[in-house]
UniProtKB/TrEMBL annotation, chain A:
BP GO annotations: transmembrane transport
This protein's GO CC annotations: plasma membrane
Alphabetized UniProt keyword annotations: Cell membrane, Membrane, Transmembrane, Transmembrane helix, Transport
Residue ranges of domain ABC transmembrane type-1 in the record: 95-302
SUPFAM superfamilies the UniProt entry points to: MetI-like
Principal location: membrane
Name the record gives this protein: ABC transporter permease
Stretches that traverse the bilayer: 99-122, 134-156, 179-202, 241-263, 283-306
Entry's family note: Belongs to the binding-protein-dependent transport system permease family.
Localization, UniProt: Cell membrane
Membrane topology: Multi-pass membrane protein
Length: 318, 538
């Protein structure tokens, strides 16, 4: 078991190296020029050349890659081209905010998704199932951008229940309660699509388990439905839930870019959008690398949890 | 982004109807309360929150660019002279700031400033002639220890022709230019790029060239407290400010990039003031009790530049036909719902040299058709792409329709603003026209615009420009007689209009929306505003 997990860890290293190469050279290959970005267009070719030299952008690509990698390892990135400030100070705090939103969204996804799926699954074919599945069908077709604006309009403009965006009340002193209040609406918007995906999976898994032979056997022996559901069906649908949750964290991170824009959440999404606008390579590269590494780590964690949940592995059979 | 299913239009419409219905029900249950209104008497204290439409750049006056950045920076850094921004109309008067008086030589080449005494930067460093010298050498003197190439490149827009800088005594400095430069005073407090705000030399030495932006230190009415990127920047009142006490204790600037979210933030009370109000929201904001001031003299202008790599657009007749084919009055009335003014000269409505009667090319589709025929092209033969950002797409389509009517086959491509800049920095020969937005109060804007959209893009080399334009611009730029300035710049703009190498379109007349909590906010004839006289209700 320990060897298996160790082996998974070792495999991550070459993967990260390949990702770093891809991230660097793909962003360099684009037509964008950091000095001729959207905001600094108002310069003559001579001014642009002068700035390019000042930033070391006239060096060959491999030399830029090596110094970038060195900066990444040494202090989490070099210096932003458009902000002239260390990349780590721009990317890390923003990514922490994104993780907070992803955590909120994932929590909602799992709790709501499993609850909806279970209810629909055990009431399979009845009214509760049909109504829930109709809502799921409609809900998964709502565009995040539009939904976000409707949520803001209803909960912040028409009624002052929730803040209109941001992470803190800029007039107040902040605090954890304030943060949670700000987290509700964007988490909900970011979680919706994944919640509904999980709900469908859980519903299908519950229905399938309930039809399976072992459940029929238990039932024939007089076990109560609640006991069967909690102890046996629940356990059997757990691995697919973990698996899908791992996958949805990925889609939540990508979906979060839009949610951050609408809810003015100061996360990696807005940092990346601004960096792309300014063709600010060091920020783009570090930001994308961070997201990619998170993907890899979440996948790793999912695999490890699945291993732990697998009784055959747990008892040393494999 | 792969997991974002897009709905059919019908589904979206149905849901809008359902949710709008429930919104109406909710609102019927009671109105949303808005905060207290600011009285007519100024109040000291309180916090103003500003919702900006873009994330700002750097709080380094010599390296910053973008109007939103200067709207923050100008509270921290002050300039030798300033503009009186207390009136909503009229070209702002040049007024003393860090200089108490100044003398301009008869040939308009030498400017001598007497500096204000007893002023200190917020870090305690005294403001004097040596501090000004340090600032100027940073972007003009390559032998200086603290010379900065990036600042030099940016600041050359204003200081490119500086011949010498002298410290006359502790409180007197003298700038001498190679040519007469009448617009120098007007350019000093100007915004966007090349801002002349004076920073503390001690701060630059302490934090370094890159560090000043994160630790900005000036003499202004507010001092920098913190910047949380993507979230907010906080300024607090400078308690040792040499001038009148600003009413506000604190100002927070928050970027809210999405138009609808920004409007929602204002309506919910999260912010007190927003910039760049979408035309669609003007009426609903006014109905909800917000002020959306009108100003028909703002130095901002939206225009299209030409790509001279496109073979058709090298012909003057084609470009003139384009200008005649676009009905700019209708554009302002229909697409912008009247919240914009048509621009028929590159000298924008808020410019010192503005002349409302100047019309480059009147709307005349018949004449445009004839010009295309004279140039030897059949209807539909002239083809190119119009590049725009997504917010400008309706405008681009309006132009497309106008061009179609005179036999020009234009395609519209629009991009999110994040990719638009990159796309226009990499033009291909099939690209024809691309959107721009800029503008100054200073009359030499004509020269700046011409350098930027024609000279820098080899317009003179590849297209049939007359050469008269460059001559006329130089005559105006090197003129030393203030009485003649406006006329000379008008001549330059008219010469340029004959070349038709730029297409002025319109200027906004609505831009800010203000909550009733805010008092004393004035939208002057400038691209920024003065917050030192604004206040908020308790």
């Amino acid at each position: 078991m320990a060897r298996r997990i160790l082996w998974r860890l070792v495999n991550v290293v070459p993967l990260l190296f390949v990702i770093s190469l891809l991230v660097f050279f793909i962003s360099q290959a684009g037509p964008a020029d950091p000095v001729r970005g959207a905001l600094s267009q108002k310069m003559s070719p001579a001014q642009i050349e002068q700035i390019r030299q000042a930033y070391g952008l006239d060096r060959p690509a491999w030399a830029q890659y090596l110094s970038w990698l060195k900066d990444m390892v040494a202090h989490g990135g070099g210096v932003s081209l458009s902000l002239r400030s260390p990349v780590s100070g721009i990317v890390f705090p923003a990514f922490r905010n994104t993780l907070l939103l992803v955590a909120g969204a994932t929590l909602l996804t799992v709790v709501l998704g499993v609850a909806i799926g279970f209810v629909a699954g055990i009431r399979h074919g009845r009214l509760a199932d049909r109504v829930t599945m109709l809502l799921v069908q409609v809900g998964s077709n709502l565009p995040i951008y539009w939904l976000g604006l409707i949520i803001i309009y209803l909960t912040a403009v028409e009624r002052r229940w929730l803040p209109a965006g941001g992470m803190h009340d800029l007039r107040g002193d902040g605090g954890f309660g304030d943060l949670l209040l700000h987290l509700v609406a964007p988490s909900f918007a970011a979680s919706l699509v994944s919640t509904l995906i999980i709900a469908r999976f859980v519903r299908a898994a519950v229905i399938e388990s309930e039809r399976s032979d072992y459940v029929r056997t238990y039932r024939s022996q007089g076990f109560g439905r609640a006991a069967i559901l909690g102890k046996h069906v629940g356990r059997n649908v757990l691995p697919p839930i973990v698996n899908i949750t791992g996958l949805t964290v990925g889609s939540v991170i990508t979906g979060v870019v839009f949610v951050e824009t609408i809810f003015s959440w100061p996360g990696i999404g807005s940092v990346l959008l601004n960096a792309i606008a300014a063709s600010d390579y060091p920020v783009i590269q570090s930001g994308v690398l961070l997201v990619a590494v998170t993907f890899v780590l979440v996948n790793l964690a999912t695999d490890v949890v699945l291993d732990l949940l697998n009784p055959r592995l747990r008892h040393g059979a494999a | 982004m792969k997991n974002l299913p897009m709905p059919s239009r019908h589904a979206a419409l149905a849901w809008t109807a359902v949710l709008a219905g429930s919104a109406l029900l909710l609102s019927a249950c009671g109105g949303s309360g808005s905060g207290a209104a600011a009285g007519s008497r100024p109040r000291d204290g309180g916090t103003l929150i500003v919702g900006q439409y873009q994330e700002v750049t750097q709080f380094d006056p010599n390296r910053q660019y973008s109007w939103e950045t200067w709207r923050i920076d100008r509270n921290i850094y002050e300039t030798l002279v300033d503009e009186d921004l207390s009136s909503p109309t009229g070209v702002p008067k040049i007024v003393p700031r860090l200089a108490t008086s100044w003398k301009v030589s008869d040939d308009a080449r030498t400017y001598t400033f007497t500096l204000r005494q007893g002023v200190k930067f917020s870090d305690g460093t005294p403001f004097d002639a040596e501090a000004v010298r340090f600032n100027v050498r940073r972007f003009t003197d390559p032998t200086f220890t603290y010379y900065d190439k990036v600042s030099a490149a940016t600041m050359s827009l204003v200081y490119g022709d500086l011949d010498s800088f002298k410290v006359v005594d502790d409180h007197t400095v003298r700038y001498t230019f190679k040519h007469p430069f009448l617009d120098f005073l007007r350019q000093i407090p100007n915004s966007g790029n090349a801002a002349s705000g004076i920073f503390s030399p001690a701060a630059l030495k302490k934090y370094g060239q890159d560090g000043l932006a994160d630790h900005p230190v000036g003499t202004g009415p507010f001092t920098f407290q913190e910047r949380v990127r993507g979230d907010h920047t906080t300024l607090v009142r400078n308690t040792r400010y040499w001038g009148a006490r600003p009413h506000l204790d604190k100002v927070v600037f928050k970027p809210v990039g999405d138009d609808q979210s920004r409007v929602a933030a204002l309506r919910s009370g999260a912010v007190d003031l927003i910039s760049r109000v979408p035309p669609d929201s003007v009426a609903s904001l006014e109905k909800a009790g917000f002020t959306v001031p009108e100003n028909t003299n703002v130095p901002q202008i939206i225009y299209y530049s030409y790509n001279f790599q496109n073979p058709y657009l090298r012909d003057k007749r084609v470009r003139q036909a384009i200008a005649q084919a676009v009905d700019r009055k209708q554009l302002a009335a229909k697409i912008y719902k009247g919240y914009a003014e048509a621009a028929t000269s590159i000298i924008n409505q808020g410019n010192e040299a503005h002349d409302p009667s100047a019309v480059d090319h009147p709307y005349d589709p018949a004449a445009a058709k004839k010009l295309i025929a004279d140039a030897g092209y059949r209807p539909g033969q002239v083809k190119f792409t119009i590049l725009s950002d997504t917010t400008g797409q309706p405008t681009a389509e309006f132009i497309q329709q106008g061009l179609k009517a005179v036999g020009i086959d234009a395609k519209v491509e629009s991009f999110e603003w994040i990719t638009y800049g990159t796309r226009t920095a990499n033009l291909t020969p099939s690209d024809g026209m691309y959107l721009g937005e800029w503008g100054y109060v200073a009359a030499n804007w004509v020269q700046i615009a011409h350098d930027h959209s024609v000279v820098a893009h080899d317009g003179d080399k590849y297209s049939d420009t007359s050469g008269a334009t460059n001559k006329a611009i130089e005559a105006a730029a090197h003129n030393a007689d203030p009485a003649k300035a406006a006329g000379l710049w008008q001549d330059a703009a008219q010469a340029w209009a004959k070349d038709a190498t730029i297409l002025p379109l319109l200027s906004f007349n609505r831009y800010y929306a203000v909550s009733s909590r805010v008092g004393g906010f004035v939208w002057p004839q400038q691209d920024h505003y003065d917050l030192s006289r604004a206040w908020v209700a308790s």
